[in-house]
Amino acid sequence: MLALAATLLALPANAFAQEIDDPRVFVLWLDATTLDDWAATGPGPLAAMTDAGVASVATPPAILDPIRAALAAAETVGAGRILNGAPTTDRRGTPLLIGLAAFGLESAILSGAPETIPATVARAFGPVDAITSARFARADPQFPGGARTNVTAMADAVTASSADVVIAQIPDVLVAELSLGSDATARASWVAQTVERAQTVLAAMQEAADGTDLVIAVSPTPSGPRRAEHIALGAIAIAGNGVPSGPLRSPTTSRDGLVSLTDVAPTILAWFGLSRDDVDRGALPRYADAPPGFAGSAIGGVEGEGLERARAVEADLIEAARAHNGAARSFAIAGIVLALLAAGTVLSGRGAPPRPHRFPRGWRDGLATASVAFVLYAPALLLAPPLVAAIIAIAAGMAALAVLGRERALIVALLSCTALPMADIASGGGLIAASALPTPIAGGLRVRALDPVVLGMILAGVAGIGALLDRMRSDERAPLWPLSWGAAAVFLAGTHGAGGDVGAVLALAPAALMLAVIVAGARLERLAIAGVVAATIAAAGLVTLTFGPALWVDQDPLIPQAAVPNLVGRRVDVFVDQLSSIWLPVLVLAAASLLLLALRRRSLLGRGLWGMPFFRAGLAAMATGAAITVVTVRGGLAAAGVTAVLLAAAAFIPLLAPER
């Protein structure tokens, strides 16, 4: 219940909205620029804003095409949820792009886009057919594409406007990218000129604003070089009465110096004292059956060195995003190779099981040692880059085997997989967010601590607890161990700051309860376990149908709010998208190695795990949790794949090199 309650809460902590008279909001829409571009401008209005409140901003998935990327960013701001530039309707044909226009705010949209480029920013503030955009493009044969923004005329229009929300879009960098392609040197020169000219418009905004107004500078579209690397990261700076002089943050990300693009719309509404319930349905009768439900939260801030903190967070996230593919592939390939080699060795009967000794001797002993090191490789990837993590895991694995023996080393390795990520989520330490292994979301960046890969690691803890209890079976309080672990894991999985994933809760709780029931002396048959899986999946479907918008949308900035059928369909679409990922073959091969052993050499499996009933129960609980995640968790194949290779490594170690 605690986890469910935590999942339902969306806390607008640190929001700086206040009760003010006649507020206005000014937005400088400076596409395809970065914090580094802003910092390089030197003294001026933009530098002053970055000294006030600044952050990196997680944007929609990084799309290479500049126009599609700009459309996706604009739609995300307007709809208050991540959209990718695809048709903005749900499966019933209901338009999703209603967002800010449904609140009766008068918007003045000033765009420097030439006629050849859609007025993308218009899509941020209402249906395209209900918005007209004033264009301020001027011919300039020296500029790539032959046109650029007339910043002087735009600044004059900002000063003359009386609209509630004044948006000035300067798309010159996007225009240059269309012409220059991947010419980084030429692009850098035009970016510097564009940012410098944009300060004229920003200065006009600051002069027009008074103490009740909010000024936002935002780059909602990632720069071309970042899109090429699938890094979806822009920039934002906010100035206004009550905005702290330091890094921005929001409950969506729970990180100083990082917010989500879905937070922009709630921040604008909060400045006007509006909430998502204040929609003017009469103004937009076409869209009355799909009221806006913003996925983000109002942005707040904390005191401190804003720009330096935001750039440090950005550097960590970019490094992790660049390292992800290598880390994920190295982990997946190492796990599959070890599982197949171990299965082949055990099934063929190659080599006699080694006697206990401090250092590996022979093929089987070497495989057992490598399997322990592999289990340690997962938490090591949260601490270091892949190569360094591999060295740490091998050294730690050999040291643990030498000092503790195989069974205790396995217990330590499995518990490390669960303890490190859980401690990081609980403390907000940021290890997960800056590491390479967890699956990137939002097109290359993570804004939540709990993701499928981390969930797969946490599930390994149930087998570790089972192995630990095998060494202390006389303890009458033994069932409290898996229950305590399950309560902590479920609570952390349900908290908003960790991601608030109900699917994770529904996977972790049955795994913990299953082990606790067995430890208490009950016997669970295969049919009962299958029933647990089916009942949990059915419960997930019931929760989706009953509480869909509250549980699956508001806590998840990647899922559009719409009708329940669209939520179910969205889950199906995400599952289908995963079928092309590396985790599907990982899951299939790891599961096949274990099933082959269970079917062909069941007696060998029984002898190898003899005297370890709770460890066997823990492995079964891991498998149960993995099966549930495939259906209940967005990106569940990744969670199941990680769990499967860790389960295979743990199961084969006692068979390769038994201590009993």
Tell me the strand percentage band: 5-15%
Mean pLDDT: 77
Gyration radius, in Å: 27 Å
Anisotropy-based shape: elongated
Overall tally of domains: 2
Portion in helices: 40-55%
- Main beta sheet strand tally, sense and closure: 10 strands, mixed
Instruction: Measure the end-to-end span.
Output: 42 Å
Structural class, please?
Answer: alpha/beta
**What is the number of helical segments per DSSP (H or I, 4+ residues)?**
22
Beta-strand segment tally? 12
Low-confidence stretches: 1-14, 87-98, 127-131, 283-292, 441-445, 548-567
In words, what does this structure look like?
Strands 1, 2, 3, 4, 7, 8, 9, 10, 11 and 12 form a 10-stranded mixed β-sheet that branches. By secondary structure, the protein is of the alpha/beta class. The protein starts with a helix and ends with a helix. It has helices spanning 2-8, 35-39, 45-52, 66-79, 151-160, 172-180, 184-208, 224-228, 264-271, 306-348, 362-380, 386-404, 406-427, 452-470, 480-494, 502-519, 526-553, 564-578, 583-600, 602-608, 613-632, 636-656, and strands at residues 25-30, 53-58, 107-111, 134-135, 137-139, 147-149, 165-170, 214-219, 233-240, 246-249, 258-260, 300-301. The model is unreliable at 1-14, 87-98, 127-131, 283-292, 441-445 and 548-567 (pLDDT under 50). Strand 5 (137-139) and strand 6 (147-149) form a beta hairpin. The protein has 2 domains: 26-304, Alkaline Phosphatase, subunit A (3-Layer(aba) Sandwich), CATH 3.40.720.10; 317-656, no CATH class. It contains 22 helices and 12 strands.
